[in-house]
Write a sequence for this structure.
C-alpha cells in the first residue's frame, strides 16, 4: 500500500512539473517571414489584437512620435496597446517593405483616416527568436 501511494505521489509530481513546462508558450512568430511580423504589428495597432505582443517586440524596442517627441520603450508601448485591446480604428491600412537586407528589415505602414494619415516606419531585426520589431517611428504628414 505504501509503495502504491509513493508511486501515485511521484506520478503526480511528474505530471505537475511537466505541465508547468508545457504552459510556457512557444513563440508562434519564431519561424515566420518578416511580412508576417509586420502584419501582426498592424493587427496590434489597428484592431487591438494583443495576443502576440510578448513575441512581437525586441527587448530593446524603441517607439517615437516624431511630431511631438513622445518616446516609449517596450514595456510602455505594450501597456499602451493593452489599453486599446479590441479597439478597431476606422482607417484603411497598408504596409510595404522598403528594404530587407540580411537580418534587417524596414517597412512603411500607412493608416489613412478620414481627416489625417498616420505613417509608421518599422524596423525589424532577425535573431535567434526570429524577426522582432525593434523600432517604430510615427509621423503624421
Amino acid at each position: 500500500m505504501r509503495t502504491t501511494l509513493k508511486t501515485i505521489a511521484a506520478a503526480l509530481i511528474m505530471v505537475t512539473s511537466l505541465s508547468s513546462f508545457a504552459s510556457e508558450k512557444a513563440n508562434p512568430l519564431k519561424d515566420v517571414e518578416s511580412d508576417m511580423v509586420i502584419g501582426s504589428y498592424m493587427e496590434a495597432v489597428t484592431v487591438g489584437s494583443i495576443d502576440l505582443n510578448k513575441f512581437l517586440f525586441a527587448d530593446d524596442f524603441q517607439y517615437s512620435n516624431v511630431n511631438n517627441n513622445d518616446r516609449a520603450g517596450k514595456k510602455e508601448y505594450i501597456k499602451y496597446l493593452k489599453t486599446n485591446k479590441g479597439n478597431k480604428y476606422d482607417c484603411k491600412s497598408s504596409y510595404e517593405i522598403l528594404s530587407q537586407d540580411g537580418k534587417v528589415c524596414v517597412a512603411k505602414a500607412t493608416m489613412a483616416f478620414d481627416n489625417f494619415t498616420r505613417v509608421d516606419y518599422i524596423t525589424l531585426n532577425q535573431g535567434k527568436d526570429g524577426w522582432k520589431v525593434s523600432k517604430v517611428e510615427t509621423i503624421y504628414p
